[in-house]
Amino acid sequence: MLEAFFERDPAFDGVFLTGVHTTGIFCRTTCPARKPLPENISFFGTAGEALLSGYRPCRRCRPLEPRGTPPDWLRPLLDDLETDPARRWTDMDVRSRGVSPERVRRWFKQHHGMTFQAYSRARRLGAALGQVRVGDGVSRAAFEVGYDSLSGFQEAFRQYFGDSPTQLEGTTVVHVDRITTPLGPMLVAATEQALCLLEFVDRRMLPNQITRIRKRFGAVFVPGTNEVIERSREEVDRYFVGGLTDFDVPLELCGTDFQIEVWEALLDIPCGETRSYADVARAIGRPAAVRAVGRANGMNAIAILVPCHRVVGADGRLTGYGGGLWRKQRLLDLEGD
Prior knowledge:
CATH class of the largest domain: Mainly Alpha
Structural class: alpha/beta
Shape: flat
Order of helices and strands: HEEEHEHHHHHHEEEHEHHEHHEH
Strand content: 5-15%
Helix content: 40-55%
Oligomer: single chain
Number of strands: 10
Strand order of the largest sheet: 3-1-2-4
Number of helices: 14
CATH architecture of the largest domain: Orthogonal Bundle
Distance between the termini: 27 Å
């Protein structure tokens, strides 16, 4: 743990917190503050343990906030973006709000994999595609999302999506956003009808899951939110505060017939209980398919709502979880309270 703390290893952000005896402050592993001497460090599994031991939260890394939560200095800019998603932002616009464009750029690159301007541009193009899909003309869609010329809009559209607006007319649009949780940020993706992806952003299988969903629907992914995502966000928030045990968000399970059969069996495991892989295999009428059930369990793309974390080894021990065994244990602990 010392090595992870001194290296600011993001893989351990959420696994443990560090308290510094000399300052009385507790931090994330990724805190940018100057590191103390090893003998002055204590480790805690939760923020509650640190608080009960007399430590106060660091103001730089904000360990009481879910990882990925936008900082206070960025929130006014994000509010402006949501109020006017068609706006074409420049560094001067950002600077006029008292915020450094470089600082904004670093945050968006870290949390969204693109600059603020690229994110804003993708939002505009996604909104335009949505208008084209429901029957609005290409010209009208272009001007309503802030483009001055049809040719400029078509070129920007082609560069982002790989096709012209008319060629993508009728295609499935999957909106993509982030949900912050006590166990780290999650990527959420949904059509207008159903949730199709909810996964921790540091999971290695995430790119493959996105590719699978794109091929399954012939979809294009655009940043932004919709009613399904907002409903998912609200239910996940309620789940983590202990007020929700059954989810109502409509789901679109993207997999083979066998995988979907396994995932539907997971949905029948009550909150607060666990099943073995053999139990799941018997539940779907294939008692010999224990290993295949394990593989399907690992391919689940809708974490928490499709509760693959409730499947354990035959002896009750925790086994494979794409989000990390520490998260699996935290989820089971939460549901067992």
